[in-house]
Amino acid sequence: MAQIQQFEDILAWQKAKILTLNIYALTKTLNDRSFSNQLQRAAVSIMNNIAEGFERKSNKELSQFLFIAKGSCGEVRSMIHLGEDLGYSSKEESRNLMNHSLEISKMLSGFIKRL
Question: CATH homologous superfamily for 9-24+32-114?
Fold first, then answer.
């Protein structure tokens, strides 16, 4: 396994960035700004907490921030369920976003265990 030199090398961060871009694309045309903002903030929180934790240069602090990022993955999935129920996304869009978020969450769990 290659050495991680910067947070951009972390696969979970890379996938979180893609998830965030997909969420921004989904919410771009929604009229419900409150919903859109909350979902966007939760997605951004995943990637930013990975980055911030890594930059702290302490495994203990990184672990704490990874747990926060993992919690944000749960928030994203919860919001996606709501969005589907409100008709903001199709079942297929929702399933893809939820699977992506769940994959990131599992990666974060593995990362935490390695620390």
Answer: 23S rRNA-intervening sequence (1.20.1440.60)
